[in-house]
Automatic annotation (TrEMBL):
This is 6404_t:CDS:1. Keywords: TPR repeat. Residues 378-560 form the SET domain. The lineage of its organism: Eukaryota, Fungi, Fungi incertae sedis, Mucoromycota, Glomeromycotina. InterPro entries: Gramillin-biosynth_MTr, SET_dom, SET_dom_sf, TPR-like_helical_dom_sf, TPR_rpt.
Length: 763
């Protein structure tokens, strides 16, 4: 159904401008291409809007049989309608431009023309070094002359220019027809020739298998793995007995993280040549990524028995196989026991991210996607939890800091992988950032390549109106359901941030990585009563018990920073449709308006007036005693508001934190220390390790400055534990081996609060 605004806009704008003529449309597209190229040459980013996403469609995708009776001519399309069960037969007549959608102009057999906007057709981050595709790059996806059948076409008025267009959100509904398709013999074209000479047809002169391999390798060399796959596939269609084409295609799939396809292609290659070494290695790798660790280790073990390898004919291959065999075996045990080598993981992460810190560019084209196994502790299970739907529950007592889940992102978009732009979705009155749009596209493309994965992704919650994926039948699982995918991204998009000083992104720019992690998606939310916490390293999410958890207790995660004010939390909870039952939400819901308003005013004053005066980097920084008077007054007022939960809320904590820092800066160290102790105890009691670490590190510094070395050591050890335990789990700080491991991690991630010369004393 359409909103009244949509209906009005559709009819009004259509009446106003209507469908454009061929000449107008070609001129518009030419102009669009020119403007785009100029903007691109100047390195300008596009701020663009999309007026609605799939929310308009009330029919689910159906596969349309491509027979003449189901064809609809452009002139018969009705504005504002999804023509379910129909398809538009057409050919591409201009070059393409890729903004959010891939846009081009098409012509149907009657000679009518229309603009086509194909959404989710190209993921940005799978095309290396090309956040914005050039017109030529984009046009490779739908070259001029390509014949298309656009199934279930949605005809609409574009919100920006008020002219008509065909919009397709689902790439599997755009079918590319071969020139010899039977349908084309049944339909005559009024314009141009019927032979589609623009499309490369290689029927007269059939190329050799090797020419496909060479062309595929050329694409591969340019990191364009999608085109490489296409090329190898075309070769395989003609030469299904060619081992090399399968083996190379497998590697291209590995690079695209399409592991099911990779495995399938290695198996085809090995069927033709069971001793093919590279196919064997790729099979082991694919199995590893599919979390079939034991099988993967067996493949590598067998490879090492291969006489060619045994006799060290190929030293390099032998090394690779040994490396992977060790890794697969380690992964197998990691997966069983959740033992990870954190130093190795952090090193890999830093190696992949380091250039980013300086210049915001990756060293690795794949960003910091890490190569480690998933893990799910068998102490947790998915259960139904009343009106919350499903959730995770402890099936035995779980000690604090226990590793519960290590999950590799199903898909992730790193900050610099997309241009900085926003999509306005007027229908849902929300703003999609470019990352969520890109996430949808990545998931769509992944499911197109590996439809089997729909099983796990479609199981996720997709809002109150959608049937849970568990009950979906085979047929539904086999379609790309854009609406479901969009909703899954809406409800499950985690935003990763790194809290450590060396990676404090907020300090550099307000940016996060966005991703979908399957198993952690089953945690329900709690603000202050959450009992698990997550930490991100690259595309890996580690979830640990924040405190000890009893058998039968539900495990909950704070979906957002619990230090947000009530008003902000309410907004975020609304996004998820949650009425949170944590202690703080319950208190704050019952508070009189007068108290609430007073607190809003205090928060405003603290953020806009006080903090800038006490932040050394701020222009308004000044160490005057009036700040102290203001802060003390603020804290008194917060106390007098009669809050029954001072230990739970963060506003008085922030004010006290500011006061403690101010005392420190003006050398009233005893007072500073008094507050820091109070705050540290409070945060420790709440198991908020990151906050506790903040105060234990301040206390270390205070004791160092006041020359109380023994006390300083105690707090230094506490700070070290509070920073590192959430990453590696519980450890004994008195054990010298464990302590030096923790120190090494702290150093890598940025434990920079102690000046170098003081640090030597503490160690
Ligand atoms: C990421 S999913 C969590 C798993 C979900 N419960 C399921 O059945 O798959 C988020 C959705 O779970 C529900 N949910 C999460 N936390 C909740 C809470 N504290 N109270 C009620 N519903 C909650 C909401 O519907 C929310 O949009």
């Amino acid at each position: 159904m359409y909103s009244p605004e949509e209906t009005l806009m559709n009819s009004f704008l259509y009446l106003k401008l209507g469908r454009r003529t061929r000449q107008e449309l070609l001129a518009v597209q030419e102009n669009f291409i020119k403007t785009f190229e100029i903007a691109q040459a100047k390195n300008l980013y596009f701020f663009q809007t999309t007026d609605s996403t799939f929310a308009n469609r009330n029919t689910s995708t159906i596969n349309v049989e491509l027979i003449p009776t189901n064809r609809i001519a452009i002139s018969d399309l009705e504005v504002g309608k999804v023509h379910t069960g129909k398809f538009v037969l057409c050919r591409v007549i201009t070059k393409c431009v890729k903004l959010t959608a891939l846009t081009t102009v098409i012509e149907d057999p009657e000679g009518d023309v229309e603009r086509l906007s194909a959404y989710n057709y190209i993921p940005v981050n799978k095309i290396p070094n090309a956040k914005i595709l050039s017109v030529d790059q984009a046009s490779l996806f739908l070259p001029i002359g390509t014949i298309l059948a656009i199934q279930n076409p949605y005809y609409k008025v574009g919100s920006q220019d008020g002219a008509t267009m065909i919009r397709s959100d689902n790439p599997s509904e755009i079918v590319i027809l071969k020139p010899d398709d039977k349908l084309l013999t049944q339909v005559g074209w009024k314009t141009g020739s019927n032979s589609f000479t623009n499309v490369k047809t290689e029927t007269q002169n059939i190329p050799s298998a090797d020419s496909f391999r060479v062309r595929g390798n050329e694409h591969f060399g340019k990191n364009d793995f999608t085109s490489a796959v296409d090329e190898y596939l075309r070769g395989i269609e003609l030469y299904p007995q060619n081992v090399l084409l399968y083996a190379n295609k497998a590697e291209a799939h590995l690079r695209l993280s399409q592991f099911i396809e990779a495995l399938h292609n290695t198996e085809m290659a090995l069927k033709l040549d069971p001793k093919h070494l590279k196919a064997g290695i790729r099979k082991g790798k694919a199995l590893k990524h599919l979390k079939r660790y034991e099988e993967s280790a067996n493949v590598f073990r067998d490879l090492l028995r291969n006489p060619a390898i045994k006799n060290s004919l190929n030293v390099k291959l032998k090394k690779v196989i040994e490396e992977y065999r060790n890794q697969a075996q380690m992964l197998d045990s990691e997966n069983k026991y959740g033992q990870y080598n954190y130093i190795e993981i952090i090193d890999e992460f830093i190696k992949k991210i380091q250039v980013r810190i300086g210049t915001k560019e990756w060293i690795y084209p794949g960003g910091p996607r890490l190569d480690h196994a998933d893990y799910i502790n068998n102490a947790i299970e998915i259960k139904h939890i009343g009106d919350k739907g499903r959730g995770l529950v402890a099936n035995c007592d779980i000690p604090q800091h226990t590793l519960l889940i290590v999950s590799k992102a199903f898909e992730i978009v790193f900050d610099q992988e997309v241009p900085e732009c926003l999509n306005l979705n007027f229908n849902r009155k929300i703003m999609n950032d470019a990352k969520s749009t890109e996430l949808v596209t990545l998931i769509v493309q992944r499911l197109r390549a590996e439809p089997q994965l729909a099983q796990e992704i479609y199981q996720l919650y997709a809002g109150p109106t959608m049937i849970p994926g568990k009950d979906l039948d085979e047929k539904t699982l086999n379609i790309i359901d854009i609406e479901r995918i969009e909703k899954i991204v809406y409800y499950h998009q985690f935003q990763a941030a790194y809290p450590w000083e060396n990676f404090d992104q907020k300090r550099q720019e307000d940016c996060f990585e966005s991703g979908i992690w399957i198993m952690p998606s089953y945690f329900n939310h709690s603000c202050v009563d959450a009992n698990v916490q997550s930490i991100y390293l690259g595309d890996l999410m580690f979830v640990r018990a924040q405190r000890s958890i009893r058998k039968g207790e539900e495990l909950t995660l704070a979906y957002f920073d619990q230090s947000n004010s009530y008003e902000k939390r309410i907004k975020l909870l609304k996004h998820f449709g949650i009425k949170c039952q944590c202690r703080l939400c319950k208190f704050e819901r019952d508070e009189p308006n007068r108290v609430r308003q007073r607190r809003i005013n205090i928060e405003k004053k603290l953020c806009s007036e006080i903090i800038p005066r006490i932040s050394p980097r701020s222009e308004r920084f000044s160490l005057s005693s009036s700040v102290i008077t203001d802060l003390e007054g603020m804290i008194d007022e917060l106390n007098s508001l009669g809050l029954t939960y001072p230990e739970l809320e963060f506003l008085s904590l922030r004010a006290k934190d500011a006061l403690s820092m101010t005392y420190f800066n003006i050398h009233r160290l005893t007072e500073s220390m008094g507050i820091a102790h109070q705050l540290h105890d409070q945060m420790k009691k709440r198991n908020l390790f990151y906050w506790a670490y903040k105060f234990s590190s301040l206390l270390t510094l205070l004791y160092m400055v006041t020359r109380k070395a023994e006390k300083a050591k105690v707090y230094f050890n506490l700070a070290l534990y509070e920073m590192v335990a959430p990453i590696i789990g519980d450890f004994d700080i008195r054990n010298s081996e464990q302590r030096s491991k923790a120190l090494s991690i702290a150093e890598k991630l940025g434990m920079q609060f102690i000046p170098g010369e003081m640090l030597a004393e503490l160690l």
